[in-house]
Amino acid sequence: MKHDRKNGLDGLFRPRSVAVVGASRREGSIGRQVVSNLIRGGFAGPVYPVNPKAEVVLSVPAYRSVKAIPGPVDLAVLVVPPEVVLKVAEECGKKGVKGLVVITAGFREVGGEGVAREQKLADISKRYGMRVIGPNCMGIINTEAGFSLDASFSATLPSVGAVAMVSQSGALGEAILADAAQAGLGVAMFASVGNRVDVTAADLLGYWEDDPHVRVILLYLETVGEPQEFVEVARRVSRKKPIIAVKSGRSDAGAMAASSHTGSIAGADVAVDTMLAQCGVLRVDNFRDMFALAQALLDQPLPKGPRMAIVTNAGGPGILATDALVGLGMAVAPLLPATERALRKVLPAEASVRNPVDLIASADAARYRAALKVVVADDTVDGLVVLFVSPVMIDAAAVAQAIVEETSKCGRPVLACVMGRQRGDEAQQILRDAGLPVFRYPEDAATTLRQMLRRQRWLERRPIRLPSLTVQHAAAARVLRRKGARGWLSSAEAEAVLTAYGIPFPASRRVRSPGEAVAAAHELGWPVVLKAEAAQLLHKSEHRAVRVGLRDSDEVFAAAKDLLERLRPQFSDVRLQVQSQATGHREILIGMTRDPRYGPLYAVGLGGVQVEVLRDVAIRVGPLDGKDPQEMFAALKGAPLLGAFRGAPAVDLAMATNALLRLQKLVSDFPQIAEVEVNPFILAESGRRSVAVDGRLRLEDE
Ligand code: ADP
Ligand code: MG
Question: Residue 503 phi/psi, 5° resolution?
Fold first, then answer.
């Protein structure tokens, strides 16, 4: 049974009554802490401690069992020993409990019988339609008025706010709540999901999607359980509200067969990174960045572009800010001449009116005010970084006040940096209270701005529907379903499959002798390329087994003779391919490796035999939409090489993007394809024919 997501989760987060099974009177026990937290939080409904040996827990009457509770129970928090969890869960199911929070550990994470126990808990959850958080978790919190639910053993009671958080780690969950409180970030809901026997991060994203109390979602992930589902939900939800993630741990991608270019270049963490980016999730390095970004997204508008104005009272920090912004792909706004003239009028002669605008150390509130008025009037500025190094003789609070008043209605993000302590603290508080993110160092402000810009770009992105592609499914199936087809296909087979899916190859003939090679070349027309093929010969050029630009019979005959004589001792099955020479002039690679966890990873790169040296590859997780291929090529460092370049015309990238989408269709139609790589696809200018000249394809058991 698939649960009704929203209603099911209301039983957990918006219960009318809560039972704590395993409520304890013992000081320092989790069972006691949970009851105490429910009371401390001011939970709106009845709290029922369940403990067969106590009449009262923390002044609340206790019950012998869940069954013995007189009224209905929406949520039950389980803090009982692992051996009795299943029995209690069953009892809760019978009682009509809607949600379980299983804090108890001793399940999948301990292996052995814990695994079986977790499976049984999943069965009970399904049988009764009871949503389960945990096991092995810290609990859940909903600060919303009318519920005020703290069903956790967290030491910190968060203040009410607009941030929802999921933590996969219980221990870190505690730290996250404490740090959020310290950062002044209020919380709407919190869930520590533990082993995720039922409720996953994706479920929670879906639950928060349309919840007006939740404006920003924070994730601490260790693994992404069901990536396909996560991608689908996160992609949708991130269009409505920002999702910020700290993801620890490495992906299984590192264990991917490193035999192909695509696989070895993709590397360990790339799959998760691209997956998160592709569904609009902002991945940050640490919790400090996460909280700063959350606050900025709550309080500030997004920058429409990358051009930032820096206003400072000290040169050094201005340069630091400049370096940080530029280093992260943003720019220092070139202010309009009119802006510089206006600044000149209000600033002393020693001040710099060029961006970064330096008001110099004597700047007081009045000078900040005058300069900011001018800068925010400049429409070329997409955002502001206002720096203030607190000098002793200046009234820092008044400066802060001036910054707030002059920028609050400017419609662009404004981030402040206050350096220097004594008088700075009060200034910081004034800025924070007004909703201005305050940083100690300009680098941190730049990091936050870059993520805000990424969010803006994500919201602007309009996906393109996939074009309809005509393919010859049956022809590919004949090769792929051939009995015993496993491992690497022969190059002829790979070519047949790719051709069936509309990835064009030049005309070619496969032959056994120099004489046959010459005859084939005559049929194909000149010039031709001659290649040696053998099952164990994967990288032909490494064995000097590719001869290009052969122009007559003598050249073909000599080359064929040489290849056969030289390679036969090593590869007994060696044969020859005579291939028409492609006329294109840029080589790219397109490929796919199936990651055991994340599914198909698609790659494009500058191709040919130099691919390992260049290592210029863009990777994305499937499914690709119609726009992904274009963006992948644009993301290559060598992208300019595909445009017009030193007299060579620009190549027809539409052919390349189409080929990648055809490759995607192929690997979705045939899940037994574990890996496929076309290298090179030789791109011609528009109007000319682009072709793949080399394809490799590996099959695995489905
Ligand atoms: P391998 O990758 O196994 O070494 P390829 O078939 O990819 O062998 O050939 C190596 C290089 O030879 C290609 O990158 C390309 O530069 C060139 N080449 C191969 N076939 C052709 C062809 N039909 N037309 C033009 N150039 C070719
Ligand atoms: Mg090749």
Answer: -95, 110
Q: Which atom of ligand 1 sits closest to the CA of residue 531?
A: 6
CATH superfamily entry for domain 300-460:
Succinyl-CoA synthetase domains (3.40.50.261)
- Give the separation between CA 348 and CA 126, rounded to whole angstroms: 73
Ligand 1 geometric centre to CA of 699 (Å): 23
Burial class (CB in 10 A: 0-12, 13-18, 19+), 668: middle
pLDDT band at 255 (very low <50, low <70, confident <90, very high): very low
Residue ranges matching CATH 3.30.470.20 in the chain: 586-699
- Percentage of the chain beyond pLDDT 90 is 78
Q: Is 378 in the pocket of ligand 1 (CB under 6 A)?
A: no
Q: Calculate mean pLDDT across residues 304-332.
A: 97
| CATH 3.40.50.720 domain extents, the chain | 10-250+267-294
Q: Decide whether any atom of ligand 1 lies within 6 Å of the 606 Cβ.
A: no
How far is ligand 1, taken at its centre, from the CA of residue 669, in Å? Answer: 28
CATH 3.30.1490.20 in the chain, residues? 507-581
Q: Does residue 527 line the site of ligand 1, with CB under 6 A?
A: no
Q: How far is the CA of 681 from the centre of ligand 2 (A)?
A: 9
Cα(499) to ligand 2 centroid in Å equals: 16
In this prediction, residue 269 has a pLDDT band, given cuts at 50, 70 and 90, of: low
Domain with CATH 3.40.50.261 in the chain: 300-460
How far is the centre of ligand 2, averaged over its atoms, from the C-alpha of 330 (Å)?
Answer: 38
Q: In this predicted structure, which of 2-11, 98-107, 117-126, 478-487 has the lowest mean pLDDT?
A: 2-11
Q: What is d(CA 145, CA 333) in angstroms, rounded to the nearest whole number?
A: 44
Gap from CA of 524 to ligand 1 centroid (Å): 17
Token pair in block for residue 565: 């004589």
Describe the chain by its helix, strand, coil percentages, rounded to 5: 40, 20, 40
Task: Give the mean pLDDT of the chain.
Answer: 91
Probe residue for ligand 1, chosen from 546, 581, 606, 691 as the CB with the greatest number of ligand atoms within 8 Å = 546
Average pLDDT over residues 18-22: 98
Q: Which atom of ligand 1 is nearest to the CA of 679?
A: 7
Domain 586-699 part of CATH 2.60.120.590: no
Looking at the CA of 524, name the nearest ligand: 1
Length of the chain: 702
Given 1.20.140.150, 3.30.1490.20, 3.90.980.10, 3.90.550.10, which CATH number is that of 507-581? 3.30.1490.20
Class of domain 10-250+267-294: alpha beta
608 lines ligand 1 (CB under 6 A): yes
Is the CB of residue 625 below 6 angstroms from any atom belonging to ligand 1?
A: no
pTM of the model: 0.85
What DSSP state is assigned to residue 489?
Answer: P
Residue 611: pLDDT above 50?
A: yes
Give 483's contacts (C-beta < 8 A, 6+ positions apart).
Answer: none
**Residues ≥6 apart with Cβ < 8 Å to 379:** none
Residue nearest to atom 22 of ligand 1 (CA): 581
Alpha carbon of residue 528 to chain centroid:
45
- C-beta 530 within 6 A of ligand 1: no
